[in-house]
Design goal:
The protein is an alpha+beta fold. It has helices at residues 23-26, 42-53, and strands at 7-9, 32-34. The longest helix has 12 residues, at 42-53.
């Protein structure tokens, strides 16, 4: 399963749409990450996604 934040701010990479963002290919890490949640996705965002993104 693919897990990704809702919005990432990354500087010094060429603009353009991507199906996915691979740090090891782009050479830049996100400077800011935003995760929006709602009652319907709260448990998934706070538990499952948080666990996956911290590993």
């Amino acid at each position: 399963m693919r897990v990704a934040p809702d919005v990432m701010v990354i500087f010094d990479v060429p603009p353009g749409g991507r199906d996915n963002y691979k740090i090891w290919e782009e050479g830049q890490v996100p400077k800011v990450i935003f995760e929006m949640t709602s009652q319907g996705t709260k448990n998934q965002d706070l538990e499952f996604k948080k666990h996956c993104m911290n590993n």
